[in-house]
C-alpha cells in the first residue's frame, strides 16, 4: 500500500527545529535537569522539585516517555506502561530507488537524507521483564496473544537503572538523586542478531540494490500501553496531566499531541474526542481494545 500523504523527517533535523520554534514562541527549555517530583499543596500541584531547585506552577504535564510510569508511581499513581527495545541500523549510501518507505513483518526501511537507508525490524522487538511487567501482566495478555511470536522476552533489563529494572530505585525523597538523573539517556545496546536478519531480508527483497553495508546501529526503548494507544488525559491529582505511552508513533503524532494537551490544559476544546485516550480505561472495567501496532 502506498499512501502519498505520508511524510518522513530526520529526527536530528526536525527535533532541534521544533525546539527552536518553541523557544521563539516563548518556551524555555532546560536540558540535563531532572524533575524529581511534584510539589503538592493541599493535594494540588503547586510546582515541581528539580535537581536544580523548586519551580512554582499550578499545572504540570508528565510527558516523560518510558519514565512516565516510574515518575507517577512516586506519587502513588499506577499507569500500566511498559517499554520494549527497538533496534535500528543505518546503511552506507546506496543506489537510488523510488523515494518510498515501507514495512512488513520482518523489516522496515526508509531513505535517509545522506542517501543511505534506515533499517529496522518490522514487528519484532525485545521485552525485558521487571516489577512493572509482573504488576501489569494481566493487562498485556491480549497484546501478548497477538504479538508473542514477535516478542523476544529477556529476564531482565539490558543494564542496571532502566525504568523497569528489577533493582531500579522506586522510592526516593525529592532531595535525593533519582533514577532519572542516573540514566539521563535510555540507550540500550541494539539487538545485532535481529538487525542481521533485517539486513538479509532487505537484501533479498530489493536485490537490485546490491549488498548493504551498515554504518552504525543503535536502539531505543519504545514506551507502550496495553492497547498501544497513548494516554492523553488529566491525572487524578489536581493540576497534573499526562501525555505518554505513544507506543512507537510519537515522532509522527508528537506535535499533534502537544497541541491537544495545550488546549486541554488551557481549558479550551481539544478539537478531538479524547475518550479513547483516557487513563481510566485501565481501571473502569473496559475491555482492552488494541489499537494500531507499533
Ligand atoms: C528505535 C526507535 C524508532 C522509532 N521510530 C519511530 C517512527 O518511525 N515514527 C514515530 O512516530 N515514532 C517512532 N519512534 C517512537 C518515538 O520516538 C516515541 O514515541 C517518542 O519519542 C515519544 O515521545 P515522548 O515525548 O512521549 O517521550 P520521549 O521522546 O522519550 O521524551 C521524554 C523526555 O522526558 C525526559 N524525562 C524523563 N523523565 C524525566 C524527568 N523526571 N525529568 C525531566 N525529564 C525527564 C526524557 O529524558 C526524555 O527526553 C521510535 C522509537 C524508537 C526507540
UniProtKB/TrEMBL annotation:
A molecular function annotated in GO for this UniProt entry is: oxidoreductase activity
| Keyword hit for Transmembrane helix | no
Taken from the record, one Pfam family name reads DAO
One cellular component GO annotation, for this chain's record? cytoplasm
Q: Which UniProt keywords apply?
A: Oxidoreductase
- Which InterPro entries does this one have? FAD-dep_OxRdtase, FAD/NAD-bd_sf
| SUPFAM superfamilies, alphabetized | FAD/NAD(P)-binding domain
Give every FAD dependent oxidoreductase domain span: 2-264
Report whether GTP-binding shows up as a keyword of the record.
no
Name the UniProt record assigns to this protein: FAD dependent oxidoreductase
Give the originating organism. Rhodobacter aestuarii
